[in-house]
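Field notebook, page 228. I keep forgetting to write these up properly, so this time I am using the form the group agreed on. The chain and the ligand, adenosine-5'-triphosphate, are recorded exactly as supplied. Prediction of the bound pose follows.
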Amino acid sequence: MHDGSRPLRIGIMGGTFDPIHHGHLVAASEVQNVFGLDEVIFVPTWAQPFKKSGKVSAAEHRYLMTVIATASNNRFTVSRVDIERGGTTYTIDTLHDIAAEYPGAELYFITGADALAQILTWKDNEEILGMARLVGVTRPGHILTDSGLPEDRVDFLEVPAMAISSTDCRERVSRGAPVWYLVPDGVVQYIRKYGLYRPHRQSEVTSMTAHVVREQTARSAHEEGERR
Ligand SMILES: Nc1ncnc2c1ncn2[C@@H]1O[C@H](COP(=O)(O)OP(=O)(O)OP(=O)(O)O)[C@@H](O)[C@H]1O
Ligand SMILES: O=C(O)c1ccc[n+]([C@@H]2O[C@H](COP(=O)([O-])O)[C@@H](O)[C@H]2O)c1
């Protein structure tokens, strides 16, 4: 338990989490343990800059799955900062919002090898490195390199190999294959309850929450505006 004798150490795991899977959870748990983090905050994106053209599930579904997946871990929490801000999700904004909530805390931004390799293309990456240490974790199929990042701001951690991706989970559900043991049980049940990742036959799935309907209406209006 944190006794106030040192700054709080806060991990931040940003992600699309469509859906959250055990690769995310193992990575966060390992970093928490090795770096003695007081808390790891999972931050579901609103619109990741490099994934804007792809179809992503409603943020409320991704947020709720993340809450379900992390609920049993005392040190895991979920933040809505990126969802509430809306627009394109830039990590620099996430860091400013979390830093404002935890003044004086040391921030550790956790990324898989694939995301780390792109960090020099992220908005305000120098400022990101000034605000947080980066922790790059191994991920099967991706090479973990520093990509020219300053050595004193980046740490590398080998985590148990989990060859799981959200893309693979979505693809499995769409063809009726199981995702048990790839994602937490509650997430399997949530996916089934709301008919996620399947061609929708709305009458057969539990109706969507008002939040999701509002979000989908707002996104459609926004996309319509952009087409004009
Ligand atoms: N199996 C894994 N092992 C280690 N890190 C992972 C793993 N899966 C995802 N990550 C990291 O978690 C963060 C969020 O990932 P994200 O939500 O995009 O999952 P994903 O599986 O890569 O999704 P998608 O397949 O839809 O691109 C990123 O930093 C990513 O590198
Ligand atoms: O800030 C940026 O320019 C930027 C560009 C790409 C990705 N990110 C962040 O990287 C995190 C992982 O994203 P993703 O899509 O791989 O789950 C998430 O928090 C994104 O907001 C951030």
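OBSERVATIONS:
- The mean pLDDT is 91.
- The domain at 9-223 is CATH 3.40.50.620 (Rossmann fold).
FOLLOW-UP: compare against the apo run.
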